[in-house]
Amino acid sequence: MSQTRTGHCMCGRVRFVARNVPQVFGACHCDMCKRWSGNMFNGVSVVSGDLDLTGQDHIRRVQTSEWAERANCESCGSPLWYRVTEPEFEPKTHNMALGLFDDTSGMTLGHEFFVDRKTSANDLPKDRKQFTEAETLALFAPEDASHDQGDKQ
């Protein structure tokens, strides 16, 4: 089942509405994705014609290989998408960074690329300390700071 989803970068200058978004997303462990996103890149493929972007003047596109580009927000640095640019590649899609979406409920990991490059950094031990939003804010945020989903942290 696919649906319409919205999202934005950290600063909100780049926003989007994506239609027919699949419930299944992928992860990439290639070295470029790790450097670009800070770890594995989690993205969901959206057919380019189903993607409405605002804030185009804040998007920085970089041809990162002979066949693909990556884009980020020039203002806040948020990774936006990975896209194959080869003319023969069909369908034309934007692999949108999962973290941009306002709501990812019901979405599941369905495939991984470059699994031979996967590192132990993605193996989460069961006995790790986990902090809720409230606990994290109590540790790091000033007492008078308000926190709203999507605001800068």
UniProtKB/TrEMBL annotation:
SUPFAM superfamilies per UniProt: Mss4-like
Domain CENP-V/GFA: 5-127
PROSITE patterns linked: CENP_V_GFA
Keyword Lyase attributed: yes
Keywords, comma-separated and alphabetical: Lyase, Metal-binding, Zinc
Matches recorded under Pfam families: GFA
UniProt xrefs under InterPro entries: CENP-V/GFA (IPR006913), Mss4-like_sf (IPR011057)
Family statement drawn from the similarity comment of this UniProt entry: Belongs to the Gfa family.
Stated name of the protein: GFA family protein
Organism of origin: Aliisedimentitalea scapharcae
